[in-house]
Design goal:
Layout (H helix, E strand, L loop, with lengths): L2 E4 L4 E3 L2 H10 L3 E4 L12 H7 L1 H11 L7 E3 L6 H8 L9 E15 L6 E6 L2 E5 L4 E6 L5 E3 L1
């Protein structure tokens, strides 16, 4: 489950309901997903997408999204440092950034238009939607491992 850290308030949120409420208040959607059936460790991207097909289709319908794919980052990923340098600079997108974490952990930093910068540690089972136009950046956690839809 995610953890939300609000440095300017010296506060950390760890309970599901308080996380959802706080993130909703700054425009970030957060949910927990469980697959319709078990996914083997090391499953192919196609197997992962098939396991989450009902949830993905529902999310596409709700948000008007067209595609879904699987990203897989490990310490052995070629060009990892250059890729992380692109992700960990504050930026925004013209479309929503939606990530469902299958494996590993990462850290989204959100800079709302009104309010404090918050850090959201995500791990397997966490779904996060960062709306278009939201300033944010991303870091991997110490193990430099994340797999996500």
């Amino acid at each position: 489950m995610a953890t939300v850290h609000i440095p300017n308030e010296n506060r950390t949120l760890t309970q599901d309901e308080e996380i959802r409420t706080y993130l909703d208040g700054i425009g970030i959607a957060y949910k927990q997903w469980k697959p319709a059936h078990e996914i083997a460790k090391g499953a192919s991207a196609e197997e992962v997408l098939a396991a989450y097909a009902p949830e993905i289709e529902r999310l596409k319908a709700e948000g008007g999204y067209v595609t879904a794919d699987v990203i897989d980052v490990t310490p052995a990923t070629p060009g990892l440092d250059a890729m992380l340098n692109r992700f960990n600079s504050e930026h925004w997108h013209d479309e929503d950034e939606v990530r469902f974490i299958i494996e590993g952990r990462g850290l989204f930093h959100i800079h709302p238009r009104e309010g404090n910068v918050v850090s959201i540690t995500v791990e397997a089972g966490d779904l996060l939607r960062v709306p278009r136009g939201t300033w944010h950046w991303f870091d991997l956690c110490q193990e430099k491992r994340i797999r996500a839809i």
